[in-house]
Every structure is written in C-alpha cells, then in structure tokens.
Amino acid sequence: MSLVVVGSVAYDGLETPHGKVDRILGGAATYIGLAASFFTDVKLVGIVGDDFAAEDREFLAKRSIDLEGLEQVPGKTFFWQGVYSADMNDRTTLVTDLNVFADFDPKLPEGYRSAPYLMLGNIQPALQRGVRAQMNGVKLTAGDTMNYWIKDYRDELLATIRDWDFLLINDSEARMLSREYNLRRAANAILDMGPNTVVIKRGEYGALLFRRDSHFMVPGYLLEEVFDPTGAGDCFAGGFIGYLAEHNCDLKQGHIDRVDIARAVIYGSVMGSFCCEKFGPDRFRTLTREEIDGRFREFREFTEF
Amino acid sequence: MSLVVVGSVAYDGLETPHGKVDRILGGAATYIGLAASFFTDVKLVGIVGDDFAAEDREFLAKRSIDLEGLEQVPGKTFFWQGVYSADMNDRTTLVTDLNVFADFDPKLPEGYRSAPYLMLGNIQPALQRGVRAQMNGVKLTAGDTMNYWIKDYRDELLATIRDWDFLLINDSEARMLSREYNLRRAANAILDMGPNTVVIKRGEYGALLFRRDSHFMVPGYLLEEVFDPTGAGDCFAGGFIGYLAEHNCDLKQGHIDRVDIARAVIYGSVMGSFCCEKFGPDRFRTLTREEIDGRFREFREFTEF
Known about the structure:
Low-confidence stretches of chain A: none
Number of strands of chain A: 13
Radius of gyration of chain A: 18 Å
CATH architecture of chain A: 3-Layer(aba) Sandwich
Structural class of chain A: alpha/beta
Oligomer: homodimer
Largest sheet of chain A: 9 strands, mixed
Largest interface: A-B, 35 and 35 residues
Number of domains of chain A: 1
C-alpha cells in the first residue's frame, strides 16, 4: 500500500571519525523514503533547487520512489554541514543553508491524495497539518518533530500531533515535549496529547514503543563500526512505517496487533543500523531485502530467551 | 548449589533527588548476596567493624545468607557517602572511609571451600586471586572490577581475570580495559584476555552478554521511578550468578546453553531493577520470588516479537 513521505531533501557535508564527504544526498524525506522503499510504494513530497543532480534523482527513482511530488525550483537545494564527535553521540552543525527549502509549501499531486499511509518528516508543524488536510481518507499518519518546534511552536505542534496515530521522536525530544524526565511518564504524557502510539528512538541504545496498554523495548543493533549515523533516525521511521504499510496495518480497523507493531520497531531498528554502515544513504545503493530480513532474524537471535 | 560471595560490606550515606539517608547497609557483597539469596544458598565473605549493627546482621541472616565468613574486628565499618545528579546517571563521592576494609584479607571458612560457585565483588585483584586459590574444585568463577584497578593494577588484574569464567563490568570499564570504544570490539578484546563470557552492564540501557560465538542483548527495565540506583549493578551480578547456581550450570561440562545464559541476564536485570525501587537494599526486605518471576515474564512480554 502506498506511503506518502514529506520532508526535506538536501545535500549534506559530513565529517565523522571515519572520513569526510563534501556533498552527499541527504534530508529526512530522502532517508525515510529510501528505507521505506524496501517495504512499500513510496511517493515523495519535497523541494529541491536547480542544482539537484540527475544521478541523485535516478538513485531515488531506481528504488521505485515516485518523484512527481518532488518540486524543482530555481535556486539552491537545502544544504547542511556537520561534524561528529569521536564517539558519534554528538554532532556540531557547521552550516544550515535552507535555500529553496525556506519556502517549502508542500502540494500533493492528485495521485498522492488517496494514499493510505502518510509519514511526515520533521518540518514546520503547520505545514505537516496542511499536508494531512490534502489527503483523502488516510488510514495511518506518522510524524516526527524536533526541539526547535517543541520549544518555539508548542501550541501549533500540539494542534498537529493531536491527529497523528504515531509520533516518532528521540528521547531528549520526548522529555522536552512532555516536561517529564522519566521516559515511561513522558510517553504517557504524550499519549494524552493525542497519538495512539509513541516511539522513542534512543540511537545506539535502541528504541521504545508505548501505547496506552502496553510497551515494547528493543536494544540497539551492535555494529562493529558506526561509519556515519546521519539519517539513522529517519531510516528507523521509514522501516517502521514501511513495514506497517506493507502489512496493510490499520489502526481504525484495529488491525495493528502487538506482534505487527513490535516487528515494525525491529524493522525500523534494522534500517537504522544499515544506514550507519556507509556515508549518507550510500548503503541503500546495494542493500537487499534478503539482507534486511537476515538482520531481522539476527535481532531475534540476539534478544530471545 | 552454594555460592560464595566476596566483597565489601559497608554503610552508605546516600542522597538522591527522592531523599537522603545518613547511614544504610551497603557494599558490593551485601547487594550481590541479597540478590543471589533469592536463587541459591549464599556464603558471604567480608569484614565489618564493631559498629556493625545486629539488625543488619539479622537482615542478612533472615535471607538465609551464611555469615560465618563475615569477619568482625575492632574499628569502624567501611563508610561511603555519595550524592546523585538529577537524572541519576552520575554520582559524586563525598566520603570514602575504608576503615577496617583497608586491611581486608579474605579467609574462607572450611565449609566454604568446596562451594561450586564463586562471585568476586570489586576488590583488589590480588585478593580476588587469593580467594579463588582457597577454593577446591570451584565450577564457575565470576567477578567484577573497577576503573581504579584497570588503570593502576592492570597486570595484576589481567593475571586475575585470566582464570575467570565470567567478567561483569560496566561499559566505561569495558572500554578502559580493552582500549576499544566500540563495545563489540571491546568485548572481543576482553574475551582474548581469558574469560569465557563478558557481561557489560549499561544501567538504564540494559545489558549485553558476549561469548566467542554469540551475544545477547537486553534493554533496561523501565521503572516509573528510579528511587536510588546504588547497588543495582551488584544486584545484577547477584541475580545473574544466582540463577546459574540455581540451575547447576557448569561451563566445564558444557552445561550452560544459550537459553540458560540469556535467562541469567534477564534475572540479573530483574534484580537490578528491583534494587532501584527503594533506598539502599531495602527493597529486598519484602521482595518475593513470585514478584521476581513476574518481572521476568514482563521482560518477555516487553521484548518478544
């Protein structure tokens, strides 16, 4: 079943302890879309400048990602540059040039509007709400946000996530949004804000999923080498929602049982872990569904008792 | 099957965001012994001063812990005082008065020497080695250590852990000992030092177990309130080794399969989580095996997919 993915498409300059790349395809929608494309049809909504390379468009198209909603306008594509600390747990932003992304006003092509699944990458909450309003009969809405919107656009954000089924954020964002330090309490406070399910991403420490009556925990996959963690959280989201779309899961019909949702968390973790194995989204150039399913089985082997 | 536990028996002064207690029973051997006592017969080896309270002795004895090896000498019992940060992930030591513990030279009562299981709490590596030498036909040796011994007694520590079956340490200690940041590599380097199995404790993030051919991961139990984390790592060790002793596990006979060892990690996590629910070791005054097994089942429910 089709999934609409909305968010940034960008170029990134990255420096990790393993190397440096001046300019590589990036952006939340790119990572979400690539990860989800291993599970379901993806329809991308984003904006790029006239510097967006044909080979990057081809890379996305080769993964069968529908690019009708990727608007191209005069100007430069969003550019972000950052450098990671030695342990990769921190990164410092050196450059954020919004460029054409500053005027992003997502418009869904006609053929996108009846898609049943919607994943809203981290953008201005009002824009996220506007996208959802353009959909007809969306079955399942998931979204991400960040500290900037939580801090300075709180009311707008609360009005937006109220209608979401899934909120996927990291632990510091969950604490900031809920004003609770303890993650179990934080999750309960966020569930009171509307979402059916909260997924808290903890990077190398794994992920937690909370619903009103249950929760699910998974440790992080242990890579021998974390090459570049850029995009791992977005790939988690892409694997998570992609799996739910693949399995035609539907909250309103009560079709998401505990096993489906737990497996979606595992597939999210799997996609996040693969993302870290190469610079930017490069791992997805060669990744196969067989490798993905193999790592899913590894997760079972490493956590079953 | 009997388990000999060696280490500090102390009084602690504790301050957490939830309160303050001037003097409460503590010490690694106390926590290990209490946690293990829910699984197996425990024989304690430690030293206390003449200020050691009859009620604390009774508390241990009521948990059927054999105290023949708890030497009492003139002077004061080891005293430690610390204060926790708001998020409980850091603590600052205010007082460390070794007192009679400074001259601890563990001597095993005759009746302890044929016990099949040995858990060496964090003490000087040469003392740990001396204890093991007093045992006859010990089936399984596990031990803990800390940054101080890793840094300043490295050779002595390496000569000691070479003979251990299990090394249980936290993540920063594993990195310091192995000189590797990545935990998978760190564990492999430590396995090369001798131990059959390395367990890396990560506090609220759970635990990892590594053997030559496999590893096992468990996320941390999500408490609604961490009251006082003092002793949680030692309780993990007590639950872990206690479970193996209860099930008569024997590495030399090849009796520890993947399931046994994984369940030992879960029981370790269970005991660590209970420890945090009250000040010091107070939770163990009322805890029941039924509650322990209930939380074990919860772990399954929260992690199975």
